[in-house]
Design goal:
Blueprint: H1 15-34, H2 41-48, H3 52-58, H4 62-80, H5 82-87, H6 91-106, H7 110-120, H8 135-150, H9 163-181, H10 188-207, H11 214-227, H12 238-247
Length: 248
């Protein structure tokens, strides 16, 4: 007689995962219908059929719901790019495929993105793609660009292998910003920008193999990591450096 299995089937979501997904889906729909600012956690909980305490158990606030949205988009994107990354070795084709795949996934959320962009644009907001709260989704996105570069036939100098994926992700953020404001049918101009941006990036990577241009690439990356919120590394104390110069 086979053993009785009372647990969930392998791979099936648990009740907790289902509840979390329900709250997230409800919030996304209400944000689209009512707007981000006008939607409360209490309203989300009521619409989802859960208690307010239960909603706060899974998401500490509306900002955390957006983080759940970021994480879901990033996870869906990693799945969507598999076909092009498994098929293509040309850097331009790989990058164009990755960028257009993101536009395909984000298409249903365009109006929603427009609504909460004013919150995400605030550098102090946890909704910012550069915020500490967005780190997980940001790292997932950068990891895709690492794979884009690593699996291409383009030759990359060792000192640029970690630098270029971050710059490629920053260019994707520029595309996202344009997409938010794009009002063309089917966001056609955003797709054109993605393809042309991929071509320009591929040319830039090809030129960066020349030793004379590598310092420029590194300097551009250093500029972003020194000043852009979310990418800033620990910087040396300028006072301590001045003291060393005086005493050295």
């Amino acid at each position: 007689m086979p053993a009785k299995n009372d647990g969930p089937e392998a791979g099936s979501p648990t009740k907790s995962e289902q509840t979390r997904a329900l709250i997230l889906e409800t919030a996304m729909r209400m944000f689209q219908e009512r707007g981000y600012d006008k939607t409360t956690m209490r309203a989300i909980a009521t619409e989802a059929g859960v208690s307010v305490g239960n909603a706060y158990y899974y998401f500490a606030g509306k900002e955390h719901l957006i983080q759940g949205f970021y994480d879901r988009i990033a996870a869906e994107h990693q799945v969507a790019v598999r076909e092009v990354l498994d098929r293509e070795t040309d850097l331009e084709a790989r990058l164009a495929g990755v960028l257009t795949a993101w536009l395909d996934i984000a298409k249903p959320y365009h109006e929603f993105a427009v609504q909460f962009f004013k919150n995400a644009a605030d550098p102090d907001s946890p909704l910012s793609p550069f915020s500490p709260e967005s780190e997980h989704a940001r790292e997932q996105a950068i990891s895709v660009h690492r794979e884009v570069l690593a699996g291409s036939k383009s030759k990359v100098a060792p000192e640029l292998r970690d630098v270029l994926p971050e710059l490629m992700w920053l260019s994707q953020m520029g595309l996202v910003l344009y997409w938010v404001f794009d009002r063309t049918e089917g966001r056609e101009r955003s797709y054109r920008l993605a393809r042309r941006g991929a071509r320009l990036t591929a040319r830039g990577v090809a030129l960066a193999r020349f030793r004379v241009l590598r310092p420029l690439v590194l300097e551009v990356h250093e500029l972003f990591t020194d000043f852009l919120p979310g990418m800033t590394k620990a910087l040396p104390d300028p006072g301590a450096r001045a003291h060393r110069d005086e005493t050295g």
